[in-house]
Amino acid sequence: MRLDKFLKVSRIIKRRTVANEACDAGKVSLNGRSAKASTAVKPGDILEITLGERTTRYEILQVIENAGKAQAADLYRVLS
Question: Which of 29, 62, 63, 70 minimizes the number of CB atoms within 10 Å of its CB?
Answer without folding.
Answer: 70
